[in-house]
Amino acid sequence: MKNYRLILLFLLLPLAAIAQKNDVVINGWTNIGTFKCANDNFQNSRSVYSFSGNALPNIVLKVVDFDCRNKVMTADFRKTLNAQAYPTLTIRFLHFEKVRTNFFAATVEVKMMNVSRKYNIEFSEADGSLVGNKRLKFSDFNIVPPKKMGGMVYVKNEIDLFFSLALR
Known about the structure:
Number of strands: 10
Domain Lipid/polyisoprenoid-binding YceI-like: 57-165
Keywords: Signal
Signal peptide: 1-19
InterPro entries: Lipid/polyisoprenoid-bd_YceI, TTHA0802/YceI-like_sf
Number of domains: 1
CATH superfamily: Lipid/polyisoprenoid-binding, YceI-like
Largest sheet: 10 strands, antiparallel
Protein name: Lipid/polyisoprenoid-binding YceI-like domain-containing protein
C-alpha cells in the first residue's frame, strides 16, 4: 500500500509544478497589428518567489532572451531596447502587501536602458502563481518607438508588461 502512495505522489508532483508558471511578456501595438515578446529563458526557469518579509524579488532578464515569434520583429525589439549597450531589463519589487484574499498591491521598479521608473501594480494569485500587468510607455524610458518603411509602419508608444511568478 505504501508503494502505491509513493508512486502516486511521484506521478502527481509534476502536475503541481506545471500549475506554477513564470512568465514575463511585453505586448505592444503597431498601426497595422499587435506583437508579443516573451522571455523564453525566464519562462523555462524553475525559480519560485517569496513575497514575505523584506526579501522581495529582484528579477533580472536578458533582453536577448525575448522572442517575438517573428525573426524581424525580434531583431527590431532587441535593437529598440539597445540590447548590446543595455543587455538587461530589471524588475524589482519595492513594496508588496495583501489587499484582500488572493489580491495584492505592489510597488515595482522597472529598469530599461539605465532608466528606472516606479509603478503601482495590482496582482492576483491563481494556481500557485502571482499574476499582474501594467501599461507602460516606451517614452517613460526615453525610448523612441521604431518606424519602418519611411514611417508607414510604426510602433505605438504604449506597451503592456505582463508578469506571472511562481510562488513559494
